[in-house]
Design a protein that fits this description.
By secondary structure, this protein is an all-beta fold. About 0% of the residues lie in helices and about 50% in strands.
Length: about 150
């Protein structure tokens, strides 16, 4: 994460704390420009039915939802699922702040020990935005496995 928005530190994405609609509340992690990948290893393999991660959009603060979020999982770290791609329909220039969950539904009785989540950056801010042509921010909150 960018040093200006580190969340609660290296375990911020799995600390059990949910960020508010305020991006500066100390719970959100922020990245300026690039795609972001999270690799998670659970203490033990578990049966799961869904994985979710929330992102924020607050265009006035240059924060944009990712284009898409890709999920894959493994029970052993060797054999991985196919990538599940989750996108959204929120317009980039939509005003206001919003928290948007990206959710991957897993097959029945999926075994998860390893999880890989890749958020595809929305890229540069679009024409019509005061920062047009500059990189956008990605802001992510808690990864939840159910």
């Amino acid at each position: 994460a960018d040093s200006r928005y580190p969340g609660t530190g290296s375990a911020s994405m799995a600390d059990g704390l949910i960020g508010s609609i305020e991006h500066g509340d100390g719970l959100w992690q922020g990245w300026w420009g690039p795609d972001v990948q999270f690799d998670v290893e659970l203490e033990s393999a578990t049966t799961a039915r869904e994985v979710r991660v929330a992102f924020m959009q607050k265009i006035g603060s240059w924060i944009v939802l990712p284009k898409s979020v890709e999920f894959s999982w493994s029970g052993d770290g060797v054999n991985w699922s196919a990538v599940s791609v989750v996108s959204h329909e929120v317009p980039v220039l939509q005003s206001g702040a919003r928290i948007h969950p990206f959710v991957a539904t897993l097959p029945a009785n999926a075994t998860v020990k390893h999880l890989r989540i890749r958020a595809r950056s929305a890229g540069v801010l679009p024409a019509g935005h005061p920062g047009a042509g500059q990189p956008s921010w990605l802001f992510a909150d808690e990864i939840v496995i159910r």
